[in-house]
Structure formats: C-alpha cells, structure tokens
TrEMBL record:
It comes from Allobacillus halotolerans. This is Late competence protein ComER. Residues 4-96 form the Pyrroline-5-carboxylate reductase catalytic N-terminal domain. Belongs to the pyrroline-5-carboxylate reductase family. SUPFAM superfamilies: 6-phosphogluconate dehydrogenase C-terminal domain-like (SSF48179), NAD(P)-binding Rossmann-fold domains (SSF51735). Coiled coil: none annotated. InterPro entries: 6-PGluconate_DH-like_C_sf, NAD(P)-bd_dom_sf, P5C_Rdtase_cat_N, P5CR_dimer, Pyrroline-COOH_reductase. It holds the Pfam family P5CR_dimer.
Length: 280
C-alpha cells in the first residue's frame, strides 16, 4: 500500500518521521508533494528512498492513502484539484480539526478520515485523534488505527469534542512549552541561577515527570500532593501560582474555540460556493 503526504511543513514532516521510524510504512511506499518542490526534495537527504512527485495528479494516481497536511482553506483547494483523479477505493485523510470527514465527503467520491497528530508522535509516543467518514468500513478503520498505534495512542473522537481534544493533544505541547519557558525566564530574573542551568534542570525534570505518569506512580493530583509538604516552601510557591494562573486557561480554550468556529464557517461557505459553481 502506497501512502502520500501532501504538504511537507511541520506536521507533514512529523508524520513522515513517525511513519518511517515506526516502520508503519516503508520509505519506498511513501510519496511526497509540496507546493514548493524544493522543500520536498530536501527531505531526500534524510529519507533517501521516498518518492517526490511534481503534481497532485501523480499523487492521486500512485497513492492508496493521501494525507492532506495543510491549512483548512488549502486542504479544500487540494481536495477539489484531486477530485477528478480520485478512485472510490482510495482513502484521503485531513489532519486539521476544522475539516471534518463530512466536509471531505461533500467534495470527494472516496473514503475519508481525519487524523490529528501531535508533535510528540515524532518520538513515537503521544496520542493521535481519529474520526472516520461514512464510506470507511471496519477494515479501513482498523487499518488506520493499527498504523497509528505503531507511533502513538490512537483515540477516536467525535466532532463536538474534537477541538477540545486537539487543544490538549496537538496544541498542548506548545502551551506547556510556553509555561516552562516562563519558569526559566523568571528564575533567571529573580535568582542567581544561569539560564543554561535552568534549561537543563527543567528538561530533566519534565522527562522524569513524564515517566512518573507513564509508569503510573502518581496521578497529577497525587504527584502534587506528594511534593507539597504541609508548611513547606513548595506550598508558598503554589499560592503564587494559584493567584496568577488559576482559570487562565479558560481564555485559552475560549480563544481556540472561537478561531475554530470562524474556520468552520469559512469552510462551509467555500464548500457551498463550490457546489453552486458546479451546479451552475
């Protein structure tokens, strides 16, 4: 089975690495296309046995599964260009929450799915969020789940919770990186600790923190309770955090959901326009 990645930006590269490093897909069975062809050709230095195609038509003709790794508006444009060359037995997958399988089903005659990756997949860990179109059968769904299981924990999500899940799984690493970077900047400003030492301490702490959770030594709550000795220094610091950070993520999720709603309105309008043009 041949897989194609259309769009070799950040998440396209993550999926390329995850699929090949986990041996979910052999390099010889992977095809790449990018609007700026040189960016795709540059990846041959790291993945010498993948194929770079010069057109979407070629990708449609050679691939059984196509991953659309682009922004919502671009994904719709790509889907419309692919449509004349797509067979009913092919599978096309969107990687963005704003493009649902229903959206793809309205444009394409084939099987569809949505697979939202996380940058953590690059280390063959973390979650992958999955949704399946109406034309996919149990065998198709099992194939996608088994493929994702080689580099992540696949989780099926519904349309009504996909944005919230994506905020945690896909955006979460960026949000946590910001918080940790703020810790580093603050300790550098308020103490004599050098930045390079602070970065090293934070990195080793986060790795150890992840292992404690992975090995089920603690939950988030019991870990916090274990570290916070009554009347100790951690508790004093925690009071400052509770004052400054408590409920601050509410606005984060309000913002992401507002952006999500705006993107979905745009997608619906574009699909409606495409239908009107087709019927005209």
């Amino acid at each position: 089975m041949n897989w194609g990645i259309i769009g070799t930006g950040n998440m396209g590269k993550v999926l390329l690495h995850s699929l090949t490093q986990s041996q979910a897909v052999e390099e010889k069975n992977l095809y790449l296309y990018n609007r700026t062809l040189m960016k795709a050709y540059e990846l041959l230095n790291q993945y010498p046995n993948v194929h770079v195609e010069r057109s979407l038509t070629s990708m449609a003709n050679k691939c059984d599964v196509l991953l659309l790794c682009a922004k919502p508006k671009e994904i719709l444009e790509i889907a419309k260009k692919l449509q004349p060359n797509i067979r009913k037995d092919q599978l096309i997958i969107s990687i963005t929450s704003s493009i649902s399988t229903d959206h793809l089903d309205q444009i394409l005659p084939c099987k569809t799915a949505r697979m939202i990756p996380s940058i953590t997949n690059q280390s063959l860990t973390g979650a992958t969020l999955l949704s399946f179109g109406q034309r996919t059968n149990a065998i198709d769904q099992q194939m996608i789940k088994q493929t994702c299981k080689l580099f992540s924990e696949p989780v099926e999500v519904k349309d009504e919770t996909v944005r919230a899940a994506s905020d945690l799984v896909s955006c979460g690493p960026a949000f946590l990186s910001y918080v940790l970077e703020d810790m580093i900047q603050s300790v550098e400003k308020e103490t004599l600790l050098k930045r390079e030492d602070a970065e090293k301490f934070i990195e080793t702490m986060v790795i150890g923190f992840g292992r404690l959770l992975e090995e089920r030594h603690f939950s988030l709550q019991t870990l916090r309770e274990k570290v916070m000795v009554k009347g100790g220094i951690t508790g004093v610091g925690m009071k400052a955090l509770e004052k400054e950070i408590h409920n601050s993520f509410n606005q984060v999720f309000i913002n992401t959901h507002e952006k999500f709603a705006t993107e979905q309105e745009m997608v619906e309008a574009l699909i409606h326009e495409a239908k009107m043009n087709f019927s005209g």
